[in-house]
Amino acid sequence: MSIVVISIIFPIFLLLNDNKFTNIDIELHFDGDTAYSYVADQMNINSTHYRIPGTQGREDCAQYFISKFQQIDPLINYTLHNFTILSVECQNVLFKINENFSNIVILSAHYDSRAKATKDLTNPDWPVPGANDGASGSAVLVELAEVLYERRQNLSVQIWFLFFDAEDQGNDPDGPGISGWSWCEGSSKFVQDIENFYNSSKETFDAMILLDMVGGYNLRFISEQHSTSSLLNELFETGRQLGFTSAFPSDPTVGTIFDDHVAFVNYGIPSADLIIKFWNTPVEWPYHHTTNDDLSHISNNSLEITGKTVEQFIYNNYYEINNQFQGSFPWSGDLNLLDSDLFLFVIILISIVSIAVVVLFLRSRSNRDKN
Ligand SMILES: [Zn+2]
Fold it and tell me: Rounded to the nearest whole angstrom, what is the distance from the C-alpha of residue 264 to the centroid of ligand 1?
């Protein structure tokens, strides 16, 4: 009987156990107005306002991040990861703090802007300004770097701030950003070369968090299905406990987005994509891949909600006086099981239940025989 009970209770326990924690009580320093100014900086990087792969604007934007991080720490460790897509020179930009710790959390966003506003009804050949689609996540990363750097000596984790080039040039139903390019070229190149950026015998990745389109009005994150569910659920619960219940709804839209986290999931790193519903022209965000994805549709409040949630997440898990991990660390639980995994799980469950039933039947018969 106990086997039957365990086989039924255990999956339910896994489901419920995802959210058993409380945010630690700590003052959050992430500032939405500052993050907003970093979106504006990216929009004003040069006269073209765009950060299209292979252009001066994209190069200037990488230099902008370097200058911001050098303001945080003049000796900050950074790496330019060069690669080419169809002979266009591209660059991911990586900054590291607290390198003496062997456990690594990656905070990431793409910073390229789309070369063509393929969903724009009037000007589909114009570039996308990319205030939300690109600049918002990157701005949150810069502000997060500032606030986490202040408290780095209390944080028992190494943190990477990783800016991807060449994310947003793939094929829409309405056409490509750049002809012949796929989505997420930068992140997949990064993961191909990831062994060059860390020492796999000494260092290990705890988690990867991706911020994509986090700065629009009416922020409402989705339940993204490539994401490691225990990690994404913990981010949702962290945000809800901060009072951000409309950004992290209890009944989020479900969607499967091929984004920069997928290469990291496939590499075996628990990863989560904080992203909104952008397909089928939703009323909350109708500007996706149009020329209207500009600064006028950016909300400092949405940036602050995103930034404070990630800041709190880091403290919950790594602030050293805390002494014990909150939440679902090491985020190995993933209920977004692949079909084959789910199939195997069901087969094992059925086998266990069947064996239990047979054992019970035999036992009851032998008891009856004794009587
Ligand atoms: Zn995009």
Answer: 19
